Amino acid sequence: AHQYEPNLPEKGVIIGYDARHNSKRFAELAAAVFLNQGVRTYLFSSIVPTPFVAFGMRHFSCAVGIMVTASHNPKQDNGYKVYWSNGAQIIPPHDVGIAQSILDNLEPWPQSWARDACSSSSLKHDPLKEVTNAYFARLHEESIFRGTNGKTPLKFTYSPMHGVGQSFAVTAFETYGFQPFSSVRLQAEPDPDFPTVPFPNPEEGKSALNLAMETADTAGSRVILANDPDADRLAVAEKQAKGDWRVFSGNEIGALLGWWTFENHKRVAADFPLSKVCVMASTVSSKFLQTMANAEGFQFDETLTGFKWMGNLTIQREEEGMKVLFAFEEAIGFMVGTQVLDKDGVSALAAMAEMAVFLEREGKRLSDQLAFLYKKYGIHVNNTSYFICHDPPTIAKIFNRLRENGKYPTHCGEFKVKFVRDLTTGYDNSKPGNKAILPTSSSSQMITFTFEDGSVATLRTSGTEPKIKYYTEIRLPPGEGDMASAAARLKSMEASIVNDFLQPTVHGLLPRQE
After folding, report:
1. Is 80 exceeded by the pLDDT of residue 67?
2. Minimal CA–CA distance to 42: which of 3, 64, 74, 12?
3. pTM of structure
């Protein structure tokens, strides 16, 4: 960090941690390294959501930020996220520089183990109260209907999934003027063993939200909101008119929040040129916001997977005089506004609740509004799934077969391939010279197939888990088709992707456990 930021000692570092095993210890060890090198260090005194570190970065103008967390990974995992001085997660060249510094310093400095500096050094500061107050002051500014939010009969149930989110979600509801939500009692307190869920990931759907649904049924709640253990993601479920629960996908939540932030922008900044308004989504996420942007006249940006790309592009767009309203990725990550240049499950929770209350006043459910959006802009149906593969050579074999020295498939079942974008090699035959515009990386696998009918499928490896993920979407023009026919076509495309491209039986891939 000192190599790239000569003012590191004065600007300092901010360090947070979640409730996993050893997270506090790892955070203190990181803090000790900086303190013993004479660097001002803002070390949170208790567990915080990941977005609090991203927010604190810009609040204190720090040079570096560290969050010790493994997010929604299994209980035995831990790790950390790194933020740079611009407030966004690191991208090249800083990630490469950090990796090289690790290799150059494999033997820890003797003083690195001296955690007593965390209690004795005058350079150590606790940012918890100041960051909390400043964060919720900013969140207060985002509420449009605070005066009427508390008058709704709509009830909410919330789960932090055994993570850090409970108290922060309570404060978010208070900040927006809502009545208190009902809490999932068995998941409300931090527990690094995540005893009530097979995976502490609300993205898994009903299997992760069973207790929340039971609590909501008892409390009479219609909407469930759930954060992952470090509270940077948001899951949403809604009880339907017939009494069944609908768990919204990340793409569906992204469509709803994208519409909501655009509507609110028009309410408060009607004179701001739409050509300077921007929303973002990762390349594996639904293209619904792109369709909406084309219809409404604002800008849509596509980035690589991960909020490190969206956060850094947000900075670039703001420097160009643009206003970024919203960014999302299908893995239930949402950035509402730009107070945090990363996904933020706390602010997204507040925005989603306010939207649900607004719609309730109009006699609508969230599902009704989603249906209206599909009617207006065209049906977008999509799905995300994965296979598990613990053998890297097998993964390489699958992807190399698809690219076959530049001879990509021309069909996938009944679907005729129009364009191929391979971000492992940099090939993209939809661009001049067949060169991809998005950044490429030979260390990861990602191939996107765009079909003649406008459908899209992306296959990629996970950066944190032994998974081959695939993302599929069918898009129809407004007024054409219906959800049932689109869903049937999506199912057909998924089957072709799995059987023709991935060949799980041939390669011994393990299916996703429902």
Report:
1. yes
2. 12
3. 0.94
